[in-house]
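My main concern about presentation is that the manuscript never shows what a single data entry looks like. An entry of this sort, consisting of the sequence and the corresponding C-alpha cells, reads as follows:
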Amino acid sequence: MIKTKNILFTILLLGFLSPFLVLGYFLMAYNYDISTLTNYKPEVTTKIYDKNGEKIANIFNKKHRYYATFSQIPPKIIEALVAIEDTTFFEHPGINIDAIFRATIKVIRAGRAVEGASTITQQLVKNVLLTREKKLSRKIKEAIFALKLENALSKEQILECYLNEIYYGHGYYGIKTAADGYFHKKLDDLTLKEMAILVGLPKAPSTYAPTKNYEISMGRANRVITRMYTLGWIDEIEYQEALFETPEVFNDTLTQNKAPFIVDEVTRRTRALGVNDIKTGGYEIYTTVDLRLQNAARVALKNAYDLSLERIEAYKLKDQKILLTDPTWEVAGDTNTTLLNGALVSLDSKTGNILALVGSIDYKVSSYNRATQGRRQPGSAFKPFIYQVAVDLGYSGATKLIDIARTYKYEKDGEELKWQPRNYEKNYKGLISLREALIHSRNLATINLVNDIGLPQLLREFKKFGIKNLPNDLSISLGTISLSPLQLAKYYTSFANHGMQITPHLITSIDKGGNTLYEKQEETYFITEPTQAYIMTTILRDVVNRGTGRRARARGIELAGKTGTTNNNVDGWFAGYSPTVETIVWFGNDDNTPMHRWETGGKIAGPAFSQFYQSLLKLYPQIQRKFIAPEGIIEVEVDGKKEYFSDISKPPRIENQVNPEAELLF
C-alpha cells in the first residue's frame, strides 16, 4: 500500500512539474551555440587546372566539397529539392507540425518509425550540430535548433548551407561537388533528370548513388520528377523527357590527380606564397602546365628508361660471351638498375611557362621530384655557357682553339697534385674550330678556351647568367657544379629566348571567391644580344644534327642542344630547345653511383628528348619549326662551310661572304 502511494505521488508530482521541465529543457537547448551554421564556413576543396582549363586535381583535407552560393544554384534544383523533401519549406518556421502529427500517428499504428517528419532545416541541424542517434531527446533538440536557426537565417541562407553541407555519396559533399563528380558538369548545365538524381541522394546516399545502383538511382529520380509534375512545377513535356532520360555517370576518384608531380610542386609553391590552407581554402589555381605534354613527357621518359635497361642487359650478355674467349676482357660491372631514375622539364622559351615537369620514372614508386629537388652535375651540358661568354667577347664559330693535352698542377692540403683531363674520344685534334669543339664536346679545347679567356674574367662574365656557387678553378670547364634540371632550364632560356633569360613559372594565378590573390609576373634578364644568342643556337643545332646529340633529333623540326655526361657516367643529360619550346632531360642513379660505362647523355637522355618533340609536333603541328636569324647576322663561307657572324663576332675576311650586304656593317 505504501509502495502504491509512492508511485501515485511520483506520477502526480511529475505531472505537476512536467511543464516546467519542458520549459527548462527548451530554454537550455535554445541557448545552445549554433554559430557553426549561422557563420557557416566549411572546408572547401582547392582545384588545380592546366593552361587549357582542364582540371589536374582536387586537393582537400577530409571532405571533398566545392562551394556554391545560393545565386549560383539553379531554381529548378531548389524546386526539385523542396518537392521531394519539404514541400512547405517556405511556409513553416523550421518544423512542420502537420507532418509531425502524421508521422506520430503512423508510428503508433505500426509500433515503429515508418515515416520521418524532418524539414530541410531539421536535416541540416541534424547533420551539422547533432548526432544520428535515434532518441527522443535528440529529436526535441533538433526541433528547437531548427526553430532557432530559422530565426537567425533566411530561407535562402538555410538552403545554401544545406546544399553545400549534405553528403551525396561517393565522397562528394555539396551539390556542386556531386554535379562535377557524377556528371562532369557545372550546376547550370545539369538536365532536370540529373538534378532529380542529385536531390534524391541525401535520403540514402549509399543506396541511391548512381555509380553503385544506377537503376535504383533512376527510380528515385523519377519519383522526384513525378512529385514536381504533381505539384504543377513542371509541364507534361518536361515530365516525359526527364522520365526517359538516362544520363551518363562517371565513376571518378576523388582527387582526379592527373599529374602528381605538378600537384606536389604547386602545393610547395603556394605555401611559399603564404597560402597555408590550400587543402581547405577553396582556391582555384591555374597553372602553366599542358596536361597533354605532361603525359607525353612522362611516356618519353619511361620509354628511354626502358631502352636503357634493355641495353644494359645486352651489355652484360656481350661481356659474358667475350669472356668465354678472352679472359682479359674488362667487364663493366653489375650496374644496379633499380637505382636508375630520370627527370624531364619543358618550358615555353619566350614566357618561361613550365609546360611539363616529371620528377621520376614512376611517381608511385618514388614521389621525390628530381626535376626540382635533385642537384646533379651537368657535365658538358654546361659548356654552352662558356662558349657563349667567348662569343660575346668576339669569338666566333670559326675561331681556332687548341685541342691538346696538358698537365695541370695544383696544391691541396699541402700536397701537390696533378690533373690530366682528356677528351671522351681519347684523341687530340691539335687545332679545331670553336664550332667543332662544342659540336663534339671536346674537353681539352674547352679547357684551353677557358685559359685563353682567363678564369677570373670568365667568372666575372658568368655573373650575368645568375649562376651561383661556381667552382673557382678549371674544373668549371667540365661542368662541375650542382644544378637541378629546372635550374638548368632557367639558364638555358638565355640561348632559347634570343639572349633574354626568363624565370620559369608554374602558377599563372590563384583565385578565391572570384578574387585574384596572385598573378604571375615575368622576370627577364638581358644576357646577350639576339645575334650572339643565335650564333650559339646555330652551333647547338649542329650538335643535334651531326654531333654528340644526334639521338635527340626529331623529324620535321629544328632542334638545338647539348649532351652532358659526367665522370664515370654518373649523370646523363640532354639540354636543348626548338624555336619555341625548351626541354631538359636527366638520367642517373639515385645514389650517385655510375650508370653503365656506355650510357652517355646522348644515348640515354637524347631519345627521351626526341620522343617528346615528336609528340609535341603531333599535338601542335602548327608550332614554329625553324630558327629565324635576327637582323644583323652575317653568313660567310669559311673553309668551304657556312659560318655565322655579327658586328661583335666579326668574320675573318669579307671576300668569301655569302651576304654582300654584310660589308655595310664595317
